[in-house]
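PROTEIN DESIGN WORKSHEET
SECTION A - STRUCTURE
LENGTH: 409
TOKENS:
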């Protein structure tokens, strides 16, 4: 946001950000959106689109890194909104690796970031992926129930990982997997750490690939870890820091960071921005349809019933964006989410996307219910935002705890 330096307040994007937004939008409009229906039907990672994005530098570690350090904090939300305006499934394929990279950046050492993050992106003609694997069949919302075990082998200075991960975006097809595992299961989330599984490591394989309701261009699968051995340096943050942290927790002190939680906290405003992109696409499309579809001798948008729906949709999209921007700005300023502002943005944006895309179908009538128009796909896609990266209920739980100070359950 401009203007902060002189004590003023502005929501206007700076020139660099505005230019970057327009550049991403152009790609979303010219490449992503026209490809969306095809990859939704194919239910496969859209490799040609990733490669095109890599060619222009949009799918690259450099680009995402620049946006993550962008001083206003709005780089990531602006990029994600535009990509997901193009298409959520392809959008998630384009940003899935950055979510995995964040899990290393958030708690990793500079050496780990330098060694592994480039391998999650590759380059033009040789695109690579990253995957972040936290969820398990019996540990979704309840991250503390993770059963995947990491055991340190002192003799070989290696970690051995065993367990089953599920719902992993890019799981099994990624070059680098970041896996959350219990080092000391008796400590719940505080006894967990993230581990980098390098490309081609024996024992890691893909289980079931899921056939989904929406975001079908994004690959989601189980990841099986059967005697996976990784070098000592692959524990995110380093072994010394992990041992210190575990010792502190065992003595009854506070845990410094909790692997999965820290990743989710950092990524929520970005996920909110994705949802804003989908909702905005639907609100725009429905407004255009309402201007041109004539019934009873006038555009349907001239009926208050329809125009009021569009009014609600547009107001909701803007409100969601403002919450996402606020949280992203706070995170960049290093301000703690004292009232769970990150969760607020994800909750409101996710539910807005579901509602607004449903309203868009209503405005398109029968057409909205067919695959000849994109709004039915957007509605299917939108639902994920109330589920992943913490369901809406879990966001309410976090906000409820933050604002009451009580152990809300
Ligand atoms: C397409 C897709 C991609 C995903 N990508 C990834 C990924 O890349 N990496 C990864 O690790 N995970 C990923 N996930 C997993 C996702 O984060 C989980 O699905 C989510 O956290 C919910 O867990 P669950 O599905 O086990 O549902 P559950 O935890 O079983 O929840 C089921 C229902 O119970 C409710 N509920 C549970 N506990 C409570 C409570 N205490 N209070 C109130 N309500 C509660 C939930 O809100 C939900 O409505 C992905 C999921 C999907 C569908």
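SECTION B - SEQUENCE
RESIDUE ASSIGNMENT:
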């Amino acid at each position: 946001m401009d203007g902060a330096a002189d004590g003023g307040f502005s929501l206007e994007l700076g020139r660099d950000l505005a230019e970057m937004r327009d550049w991403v939008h152009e790609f979303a409009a010219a490449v992503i959106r026209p490809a969306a229906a095809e990859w939704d039907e194919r239910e496969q990672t859209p490799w040609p689109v990733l490669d095109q994005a890599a060619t222009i530098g949009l799918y690259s570690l450099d680009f995402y890194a620049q946006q993550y350090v962008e001083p206003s904090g709005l780089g990531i939300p602006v990029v994600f909104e535009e990509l997901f305006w193009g298409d959520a499934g392809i959008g998630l394929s384009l940003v899935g690796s950055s979510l995995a990279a964040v899990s290393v950046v958030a708690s990793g050492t500079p050496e780990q970031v330098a060694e592994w993050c480039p391998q999650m992106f590759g380059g033009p003609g040789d695109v690579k992926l990253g995957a972040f694997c936290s969820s398990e069949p019996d540990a979704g919302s309840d991250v503390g129930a993770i059963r995947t075990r990491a055991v340190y082998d002192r003799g070989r200075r290696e970690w051995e990982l065993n367990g089953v991960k599920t719902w992993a975006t890019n799981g099994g097809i990624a070059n680098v997997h970041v896996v959350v595992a219990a080092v000391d299961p008796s400590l719940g989330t505080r006894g967990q750490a993230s581990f980098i599984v390098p490309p081609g490591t024996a024992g890691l394989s893909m289980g079931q690939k899921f056939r989904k309701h929406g975001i079908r261009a994004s690959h989601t699968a189980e990841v099986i870890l059967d005697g996976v051995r990784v070098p000592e340096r692959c524990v995110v943050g380093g072994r010394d820091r992990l041992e210190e942290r575990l010792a502190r927790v065992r003595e009854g002190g506070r845990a410094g960071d909790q692997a999965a939680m820290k990743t989710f906290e950092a990524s929520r405003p970005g996920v909110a921005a994705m949802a804003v992109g989908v909702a905005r696409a639907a609100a725009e499309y429905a407004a255009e349809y309402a201007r041109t579809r004539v019934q009873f001798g006038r555009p349907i948008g001239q009926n208050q019933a329809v125009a009021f729906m569009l009014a609600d949709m547009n107001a909701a999209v803007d409100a969601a964006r403002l919450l996402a921007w606020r949280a992203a700005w706070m995170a960049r300023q290093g301000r703690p989410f004292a009232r769970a502002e990150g969760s607020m943005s994800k909750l409101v944006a996710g539910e807005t996307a579901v509602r607004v895309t449903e309203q868009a179908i209503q405005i398109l009538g029968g057409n909205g219910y067919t695959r000849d128009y994109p709004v039915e796909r957007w509605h299917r896609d939108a639902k994920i935002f109330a589920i992943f990266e913490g369901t809406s209920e879990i966001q309410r739980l976090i906000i409820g705890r933050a604002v009451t100070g009580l152990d809300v359950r």
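SECTION C - NOTES
The CA atoms of residues 137 and 369 lie 33 Å apart.
The chain is about 50% helix and 15% strand.
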